[in-house]
Every structure is written in C-alpha cells, then in structure tokens.
Amino acid sequence: MSFVGGGSDLPAFYKTAPGAVLSTTIDKYVYVSINPKFDGGIRLAYSQTEEVASLDQIQHRLFRAALETMGIKGGVEVTTTADIPSRGTGLGSSSSFTVGLLNAVNAYKGLNSSAEWLAATASEIEIERCGAPIGKQDQYAAAYGGLNLITFNPEGSVSVEPLSIRPEILTELFSKLVVFYTGVTRSASDILARQSEQVTDDSKSRAQLGRMVELAYVLRDELCTGRLDSFGEILRENWSLKKGLASGISNGDIDRWHDVAIAAGAEGGKLLGAGSGGFLAFFAPPDLHDAIEKAVGLRRVAFNFEPAGSEILLSLRKNNEQK
C-alpha cells in the first residue's frame, strides 16, 4: 500500500532525479507452493491451469521468465492463491507473486533468498525480461516488508529505510485507515506507459512528481516524530498531483467516491496503484468509518499492518546456501 511518491519509481523520472515512495505492507498475501512433478512436465495452477511439457510452452509470462531465470526446466508443479484479486488492484499483486515465486523456487532448490536479491531479481524479470512499463516499488515492498521509505537512485540502485515509529503511533495510523474495493480491475501498463511518456516530455509533470517525492520525505519525518495531524492533508495533495500526471489515472466514479468520502469526514484519500480502479484508501477518525462506508457505497476491506516481507512458511528441503 503506497501512501505518497508513487510514480517516481519509474525510470523516466528517477534516472534524472532520485525518486522516493513511502509505503507499507499489509496482511493480504499471495501464497506460492512448489512440488516435484512425477512425469517431468510442468503444471501451473493460478487463475488458470497450464500443463505443458516444456518452458517455452508456458503462456504466463512471469511464470515462464522466473522459471527460466532460476534454471527450472521441468518436473515441477506450482500453485498460487491470493487473498485479493490477482491483477489490477493497485496492491502490488503481480510483484508479490513474482517475489514469492522466486523465494519458493530457491527454497525448493535448498537455497535461502535475501530481500535485496528477491527485489532486484523480481524487478529484472518484470521490467527487463517481460517488458512491463512499471516501477520497482512493489517488488521492494514485497521483499522487505514493513513501513518504509524506498529511494530510487539515478544509477539504478534502490535503498530501503524502515521507519522508526513508536508502536502506539503505528497502531493509531492503521486504526484511522479505511480501504474500499471499487470492483474494477485494470492493467496498469497502459497508464504507466502514458505517465512515463508525459514525465519525459513535460516539465510540469516532472515538477509534480518532484513535489510527490518531497511529500514522501515530509511524511516520513512526520511519522517518525509521532505526528499524524498532517497525514490526511498529505494524502490529499499527493492524490491531486497524481491525477494530473496522465489521462486515465482517475475517472468520474473515482472522483465521486473520493469527494463523498471527504464530505463524510475523511481527512484525505487516494486511489492505490497506477489508476482507474482497484482500491481506495482514506484517512479518517475510526468513528467516521461507518459513515464514509455508507457514503461511498463500496465494499470495505479489513486489513492491518504486516511487518514481514516474503517468507517461507514450510520447506521440506534443507537450506544449505545463501543466495
């Protein structure tokens, strides 16, 4: 769940000025299991099922690229399930899947995976091998976990700064967040491609993203000093800036849901992810959450803070090497 700075993790921006995103992981998960397949083929079970004889027959691009990268040529059965819709929700599902798949395959091979290796390799697979016009924030969030300021440097390196926040402030923060599902899923690729083009060609868009990066640092300082009073205002400014980056980020329905939530007492809010659908998050006193839910008329989604990144829950193979 990205709060501020989203979009500054695209190379169109960070190759000339550092980007920064303040985000958190939440207790919604993608589960990946892998097991030997007796006949030497490959069986993949996700929202669809594929049973093939070789890697080049796999239709799912991320599956194919990840297994190629990891040197798995056959003889495996991989199953994935998720707590939320697997595509187009704005909560980093595809990157969480890729990170989890890499972690599971390494454990299957008897290897441990560092968070940095998982994030960097997942980014390479999604962006370079599969050609997705996306940024790196979701891969690093899923691999590291927790509430972080993630910085994207012009030479391509990424740094992850866990925020040092008093437990009572973290509890208060999450008690004031309320999230709704719009019921709309969408591919982020087209929106992000337009955003990258706009940022490359338009100085105003670059200035807007620059301000969003500033807000990421402002919000970090506010949270680390125990102040939540400006959280809603920062969300509102960030969302206003984000909407102006490219066409399709918002639409009439999203604007209406946002405005009625603000009228019902939300101090700020934003659409999570690239735009056009997925989940809406608002910051408001807990005693107003029911009124906001009634006003927007959308499905409310319960969630909480998750401090951990990708983890191996069960492995029947001995880990013997650090990757």
Automatic annotation (TrEMBL):
GO molecular function terms noted in the UniProt entry: ATP binding; fucokinase activity
Span of domain GHMP kinase C-terminal: 220-295
The GHMP kinase N-terminal domain, residue ranges: 64-146
UniProt GO BP: GDP-L-fucose salvage
Pfam families (alphabetical): GHMP_kinases_C (PF08544), GHMP_kinases_N (PF00288)
Keywords, alphabetical: ATP-binding, Kinase, Nucleotide-binding, Transferase
Family: Belongs to the GHMP kinase family.
PANTHER family: L-FUCOSE KINASE (PTHR32463:SF0)
Protein name: D,D-heptose 7-phosphate kinase
Originating species: Brevundimonas diminuta 3F5N
Lineage, opening ranks: Bacteria, Pseudomonadati, Pseudomonadota, Alphaproteobacteria, Caulobacterales
